[in-house]
Each structure stands twice: as structure tokens, then as C-alpha cells.
Automatic annotation (TrEMBL):
GO CC terms: plasma membrane
Ranges annotated as spanning the membrane: 42-63
PROSITE patterns tied to this protein: HIS_KIN (PS50109)
Localization per record: Membrane
Organism: Polynucleobacter victoriensis
Membrane topology of the entry: Multi-pass membrane protein
Protein name: histidine kinase
Record keywords: ATP-binding, Kinase, Membrane, Nucleotide-binding, Phosphoprotein, Transferase, Transmembrane, Transmembrane helix, Two-component regulatory system
Catalytic activity: ATP + protein L-histidine = ADP + protein N-phospho-L-histidine
GO molecular function, one term: ATP binding
EC number in record: 2.7.13.3
Domain of life, per lineage: Bacteria
Domain Histidine kinase: 122-330
Enzyme class: transferase
Length: 330
């Protein structure tokens, strides 16, 4: 607007000069007036606008720093043991993502700490039984005048159970608390299963059981070898444990479409639907025929299946009338 007014005044001045209707002094006077009006038109918006702009900037900085101060106070006032989400309202949208990421980190830390606490509590609780048995058998051996082989057998069995329990607890803790991704290997599942059966054969032979392995092809899958070994050994151990002496276990591999399926069938009593629903509850045992099991097997199986992206399905074995565990590899 200032420039338009100055332009009109300049045009009027030039017209008067051309028509010689104005003196030199008058030209100088009107020129100075035009310059003064032009400068004043430029300066007064700054005089008014700068204080307003200063107030606006101060308000924005104050509100932002106030939000950061509230966030700082919320963090400072927290107990070192508190891992709950930080709740601060009215944060600017630029700071909200930072708080969301911080809360996400706290949630992950909380889960990890809870796993560690549960692991410690479970270990302390479950190790009491085998350790008490070991102590009792040691006291019997000390008091007996004649050392009976049965006493040593019971002592060895208690040691084996404690060792098995520690092994299972450590396996479960490793899978649950791992923060890194387990690398997958290109694995010959056919050779892998044959090797695992060979490792377990002394247990099978001790119960005079029969195991059949049907490998109709040389299949390969992508899986973490260590985790798959823990998973398969737990399923096979359950099949051996729950199948009766001279019972039968079938292990088979086959492919349907792009998926490889591993099935383990046993001749045990199987599971009711209610028992299937309770699988994964720690230290839960169903009609255990020996004291060797830890009750952690299915917790480990379910967690590894989740980590590896495996689909585990339970059903009744048509041939053996026991439990059939089917694993689908993705």
C-alpha cells in the first residue's frame, strides 16, 4: 500500500515538472515529503510488529520448555524400580514421538525384568525338590551300614532331575530374554532328525520301545539349528516318557505344497482338550509316570515356535492312539 501511494505522488510530481507548473524549491519540498512518507510507511509496521513477534516467540519457547520441564520432572520423580509408562499430557507433537519411544523401551525392559524375576523364582522353587531328595539319599547312605545300589540309583536319579531342570530353565530363559534375532540356517531337516533320534536312542532302548522314522524325501528348511534341536528333543522326550515300555513312536517328514511337515506320534495316553488348553503352564505335568520331567517342555516348545515362526498342531494319533504333534515349517 505504501508503494502505491508513493507511486501516485511521484506521478503527480513528474506531471507538474513536465508542465512547468512547479518551482525548484517546491520540487525539493515535495520530494522530501514523499521520502518521509515512504520511510515512515516502512518503519511503523516494524515498530508495531517486532514487539508482537517477540511476545509470540517468547510464548512458544516458554510453552515448549515448560513441556520439556514437565517431562524432565516426571522422569526425575520416578523410582529406580518403576518401569511403568511415563504419562505427560500436553506435549508438543515434536516431542510426543520421543516420549512414545521412551515408553516403548520401558515396556521392553519391564518384560525382560519380569522374565528374569520369574526365572529366579522358578529355579529357586523347583530346585528345592531334587536338592532335598539328593540330601535325603546322601543321609541314608551315610547312616546305612551296608551301601545299597538302590540308594546310589536314587541319588543319581535326583542329580539327573536337577541337571535336567537347570538345562530346561536355562533354555527357556535364553529364548525369552534374547534381544537379538536368532540366525536361521539352511538345514537338511532329514539328516538333522535322524541325528537327534540317534542321540535319544539310549532312552528309547532303556524302555524297550520301537521308533520308526519315515523320511520320504531329502527336505531342507530354514531354521535356527540350536533352537530346533531344543524343540525336537523336548517333543521326543515327551513321546518317550509317556509311551509305555515296549511302546511305539513314529517320526515322519513329508511335504505339502511349499511347506515341510514334521510329525511325532506316540503310543501314550494322549491329552484331553482341557489338558491341551493348559499346555505351556510352567511346571504343569499330566499323569507323569516318572519324576524326570520338569514341566517346562511345552513352555519352551511354544516360545521357540513363536520365535521361529513354526505352526505346531496337536491331535490324536490315528495309528498309535496317543498324541500326534505336527510342526509346519514356513
Amino acid at each position: 500500500m505504501v508503494w502505491f501511494d508513493a507511486r501516485d505522488e511521484l506521478e503527480e510530481l513528474f506531471r507538474k515538472i513536465i508542465e512547468k507548473n512547479i518551482s525548484i524549491n517546491k520540487i525539493t519540498h515535495e520530494k522530501n515529503e514523499i521520502l518521509i512518507d515512504l520511510l515512515w510507511g516502512l518503519i511503523w509496521p516494524l515498530i508495531i510488529g517486532l514487539p508482537i513477534l517477540t511476545v509470540i516467540i517468547y510464548g512458544v519457547v516458554y510453552l515448549t520448555s515448560s513441556s520439556i520441564t514437565k517431562l524432565q520432572k516426571a522422569i526425575t520423580d520416578r523410582s529406580p524400580n518403576s518401569l511403568e509408562k511415563i504419562e505427560v499430557s500436553g506435549l508438543p507433537k515434536e516431542i510426543s514421538p520421543l516420549l512414545n519411544e521412551l515408553n516403548s523401551l520401558l515396556s521392553r525392559v519391564k518384560v525382560s525384568v519380569e522374565h528374569e524375576k520369574r526365572f529366579t523364582a522358578d529355579a529357586a522353587h523347583e530346585l528345592r525338590t531334587p536338592l532335598a531328595a539328593i540330601k535325603a539319599q546322601a543321609e541314608v547312605i551315610r547312616l546305612e551300614k551296608v551301601l545299597e545300589p538302590a540308594a546310589f540309583d536314587n541319588l543319581i536319579e535326583s542329580c539327573d532331575r536337577a541337571s535336567r531342570l537347570i538345562e530346561q530353565l536355562l533354555a527357556l530363559s535364553r529364548v525369552e530374554t534374547s534381544v537379538s534375532t536368532f540366525e536361521k540356517d539352511d538345514l537338511s531337516i532329514s539328516e538333522f532328525i535322524a541325528q537327534q533320534i540317534a542321540y535319544a536312542y539310549p532312552q528309547i532302548d532303556a524302555k524297550s520301545q520301537v521308533i520308526e522314522y519315515d523320511d520320504s524325501g531329502k527336505y531342507r528348511v530354514r531354521a535356527n539349528k540350536t533352537l530346533l534341536e531344543i524343540l525336537f528333543r523336548n517333543i521326543l522326550d515327551n513321546a518317550i516318557r509317556y509311551s509305555p515300555p515296549k511302546g511305539k513312536i513314529n517320526v515322519s517328514l513329508n511335504q505339502k505344497g511349499s511347506h515341510v511337515f514334521l510329525s511325532i506320534e506316540d503310543s501314550g495316553p494322549g491329552l484331553t482338550q482341557d489338558q491341551v488348553n493348559k499346555l505351556g503352564i510352567r511346571f504343569q505335568r499330566f499323569g507323569q509316570v516318572d519324576s524326570y520331567g520338569s514341566g517346562l517342555g511345552w513352555s519352551i516348545i511354544q516360545k521357540i515356535s513363536e520365535v521361529e515362526g513354526l505352526d505346531v498342531h496337536l491331535s490324536m494319533s490315528v495309528e498309535l492312539s496317543g498324541l500326534c504333534v505336527s510342526i509346519r515349517f514356513s
